[in-house]
Amino acid sequence: MAEHYFQQRIQPIAIDPGVNFKANLSTVLNGYHQLIEELFSGSEPRGCLMGNLMVEVSSQSPLLHQTLNQLYDQWIVLLSALIQQGQQQGHIRADLPASTLASVFWSNWQGTMLRCQIKVDKMAAKRALVQCMQMMTR
User: Fold this and answer.
1) Are 92 and 25 in contact (CB under 8 A)?
2) How far apart are CA 123 and CA 24, in angstroms?
3) Are 131 and 68 spatial neighbours (Cβ–Cβ below 8 Å)?
4) DSSP string, the chain
5) What is the distance between the alpha carbons of residues 21 and 26, in angstroms, rounded to a whole number?
6) pLDDT value at position 61?
7) Which of 72, 69, 64, 78 is nearest to 25 (CA)?
8) In sequence order, which residues have a C-beta less than 8 Å from that of residue 82 and are 6 or more positions away?
9) Burial classification of residue 11, based on how many CB atoms lie within 10 Å of its CB (0-12 exposed, 13-18 middle, 19 or more buried)
10) Residue 82 and residue 63: Cα distance in Å, rounded?
11) What are the CA-CA distances from residue 47 to residues 27, 38, 55, 117, 137 (Å)?
């Protein structure tokens, strides 16, 4: 289930090395915005499946725990590639490693998804992603 979610929802957000950072950033943010639309499509926001599984189930299943850790690592690699491209092109701050900034972005995403399960505000979720990226830019 978690692997399918990652393949269908997260992996398509990967960057295209043949285009510049701004184009990739737009694609990535649009992908997250589409994901937010899907997560808010029902009567209550569902939150991020991977985050929900990490909190609720992973300690009960060593195999699921291992799978989620691997998927988290892959997610960080995807985000790091975007951030590293932005650093190389002078758009993203370079005083921190891309992997650190990717972890901050991921943590912001998960925190935003948890918060939105309490206070249903789709636009706040979208703004949080943009604001996090803005904090990373020069």
Assistant:
1) no
2) 22
3) no
4) -HHHHIIIIIGGG---TTS-HHHHHHHHHHHHHHHHHHHTSSSS----HHHHHHHHTGGG-HHHHHHHHHHHHHHHHHHHHHHHHHHHTTSB--SS-HHHHHHHHHHHHHHHHHHHHHS--HHHHHHHHHHHHHHHB-
5) 8
6) 83
7) 78
8) 15, 21, 24, 25, 28, 102
9) middle
10) 29
11) 21, 10, 11, 6, 27
Per-residue pLDDT tens digits of the chain, which is 138 residues long: 667 766 777 777 778 889 999 999 999 888 888 888 888 887 777 777 777 777 777 678 888 888 888 888 988 999 999 999 999 999 999 999 999 999 999 999 888 888 887 888 889 889 998 899 899 987
> In the chain, what is the greatest distance between 2 CA atoms, to the nearest angstrom?
44
Residue type (1 letter), 49: L
Q: Are 91 and 101 contacting, i.e. CB atoms less than 8 angstroms apart?
A: no
Residue 100 makes CB contacts below 8 A (sequence gap 6+) with none
